[in-house]
Amino acid sequence: MKSTDLRIIPGLISLAIILLLWFVVPAPENVSDNAWHLLALFVGTIVAIIGKVMPIGAIAILAITLVAITGVTNDNPSGAIKDALSGFSNSLIWLIGIAIIISRGLAKTGLGNRIGYYFISLFGRKTIGIGYALALSELIIAPVTPSNTARGGGIIHPIMKSIATSFGSSPEEGTSRKIGHYLALVNYHINPITSAMFITATAPNPLIVKLIADATGADISITWGTWALAALLPGLVCIALVPLIVYAVYPPEIKSTPDARTYAKSKLTEMGVMSYGEKIMISVFALLLILWAGVPAMILGPDYKVNTTAVAFLGLSVLLITGVLSWEDVLKEKQAWDTVIWFSALVMMATFLNKLGLVAWFSTVVESNIKELGFDWIASTIILVVIYFYAHYFFASTTAHITAMFAAFYVAGLALGAPPLYLGLLLAGASSLMMSLTHYATGTSPIIFGSGYVSMENWWVMGLIMSVVNLIIWGVVGGLWWKLLGYW
Fold first, then answer.
1. Less packed terminus of the chain by CB within 10 Å, N or C?
2. Of the residues 301, 332, 363, which one is the last residue of a structural domain?
3. What sections of the protein cross the membrane (predicted)?
4. Are residues 210 and 320 in the same domain?
């Protein structure tokens, strides 16, 4: 018998939840049957993602199929399938898909490794310097790597492991605490911060932009430049603190590492002079950042404004024309196509939950419960964000968490009196920073945790400490920075 990707028990649980909500639990007052039935499909989908019933792309296909067949969004069969496939027309989804393909060039050309070893050759005299080198490497490549897993787990982590191994630090020999334990924690805790700093640094960020725009009737439409500028100061402060805090909590046994610079320089020598492909990749990265930041429009006027997704297509086109990426590379980038599919399904369901009034109903429930406490908007917002953030202990996917909770909590915060852009930026930051909590919080977690350098107890302790630090910085330093920028 042929094995499948299907996990039976979590699958049955997901199905039971759908049937229970659909047939047993009545729709609350002021909620239509169609809205409630779509919620049943949505909750079942989220539970299936959390339970890893099937690969997320396969779950997305099932969700699209159920929306189309049940007609929860449209009684007309033609209209129902059109609604079910509507997510594929969202340009932000294609922005992430194309950017993931572009980031393939980092691995193919070796540019990602060169950046990492270059910073270690500069700052690697001390162990803490290696920590900052890893952090700077993450920061440099974050704007053009929408997969935080590929960035933290696929590019930075192998570099971190090679450095640790060169100092005789390995889990197998019981020598993790020499240096590998420290570097693995820095490697991981920089990842959520860089993910929070750019729209294009992790896949769910464009979904947040859309949810905020939908909730405010497009009054708040966060651009790539607005997000990057808003996250710049709190992000840099967080990055500056991570190596220091990890060092204070779990100091490495080896503190001086003069050989690290020598090792990094030998790796750079081994790589040789910068290749044609690497030079093209750097040029494309510069082009993307200039256009995404809206520099031509700032200098030459609004007529020179370019759509963010169109810029991503331009970057990919340059890589194809120059031969840095082949069409075969594009076709082989499974993660990109997988992301386009599951992202489209979740965006579609979230959009229609909003259109059918379910998000407004749920946000009213959240708002009324917090309002009963009698606090002002500042205290209410803190409570709201803390609940949203620490609910991630129950999620193994930031995408599932954001899709399930972001819109309702954002609308509830607006009703409680929070400034729209301040609240949006704070929740957007929290949506990435919550990755710090557990060893299953996002795709990067199991890769770095699975290397064995950090025990589960140490991982959770460090995660809790960094979660508090990051939230305070994003809320206080970020809030003051956004006030200075005139965002609220």
1. N
2. 332
3. 6-27, 39-72, 84-103, 115-135, 227-250, 280-300, 306-327, 339-362, 374-395, 407-430, 459-482
4. yes
